[in-house]
Amino acid sequence: LALERALRQALENQEFELHYQPKVDVASGAVVAMEALLRWRCPQRGMVPPSDFIGVSEEIGLIIPLGAWVLREACRQNRAWQLAGMAHLRMAVNLSAYQFRQKDLPEFVAAVLKETGMDASCLELEVTESVVMHNPAEAAQILDRLHAQGIHISVDDFGTGYSSLSYLKQFRLDTLKIDRSFVRDISSDADDAAIVRSVIALAHSLRLQVIAEGVETEEQLAYLRELGCDQYQGYLRSKPLPAAQFEALLRSGAADT
Ligand code: G
Ligand code: G
Ligand code: MN
Ligand code: NA
Asked: Where is the EAL domain (predicted)?
């Protein structure tokens, strides 16, 4: 209960912030997008990771206003970077299942894009398999309406959820994000390598892009390059950074080496 009360206060007190992690093109090494990752800077608890408060926020309904804040802030920040003359990159935002079930989600997203002046083609929404599989017919409609605006859709943590491969065909998707549990031992575990190889082949045959999560070593990256993975994300390039540090990373040219 103390946590619930503190969380409700946190939004009012502006204790939330976004960190940003680059998404990198495997072939060129260029930063092509970034993912916004939520953090709670709690005066009592210190920096709290989302795993410790997203679930509770969903239970108490806070995820709707909190998710709205995340989307606005991510779009506002991305537009500010664009207006400051930085490269126009895509900003990825994670969506909770609860947000996805809001009937007016596509209209809400459209309103935020309009309000912040950000182009729909610069927004990416990340949803997990379970989010879309909860009610596939409804999900297909929502994804259609988001996609029709020009928004990029990614499936997060791909391979860990309840996978019915038929949904890959039904849903309007752009990118599969290979969960980092398959990437970790890719160079030593033949099964993991086979899974990653198969997911890449599947994605490409369905004209989807594929990004590997949790890339920490040059060896993992070399394997992914060999397997034809399009993009990667992970500590090898950068951990998620506060806005000022992320901007410095982009400006340093580390963006396109
Ligand atoms: O950033 P890591 O930084 O610890 O994120 C852990 C988990 O929290 C990830 O699965 C990520 O999808 C989720 N997460 C991070 N930011 C957000 C957010 O803004 N909204 C939702 N719903 N989940 C988030
Ligand atoms: O939304 P998603 O489930 O993809 O959240 C990404 C999570 O992965 C965040 O918690 C982020 O901090 C974490 N992460 C990003 N890069 C790496 C990495 O290279 N290694 C590990 N172990 N975690 C990572
Ligand atoms: Mn994500
Ligand atoms: Na993920």
From this structure: 1-254
pLDDT tens for each residue of 29-80: 999 999 999 999 999 999 999 999 999 999 999 999 999 999 999 999 999 9
**What distance in angstroms lies between residue 216's CA and the mean position of ligand 3's atoms?**
16
pLDDT of 146 over the 60 cut? yes
Q: Is the CB of 231 under 6 A from ligand 1?
A: no
- C-beta of 49 in contact with ligand 1 (< 6 A): yes
Per the document, the length of the chain is: 257
Please list, in sequence order, all residues whose beta carbon lies within 8 angstroms of the beta carbon of residue 87, skipping any fewer than 6 positions away: 31, 250, 255
State the ligand closest to the CA atom of 126.
3
CATH of region 2-251, choose from 3.30.420.40, 3.90.79.10, 6.20.20.10, 3.20.20.450: 3.20.20.450
pTM summary value = 0.96
Could you report the predicted ipTM of this complex, rounded to two decimals? 0.96
DSSP-derived 3-state class of residue 115 = helix
What mean pLDDT do residues 195-212 have? 95
Kindly tell me the sign of the dihedral angle through the C-alpha atoms of 23, 24, 25, 30: positive
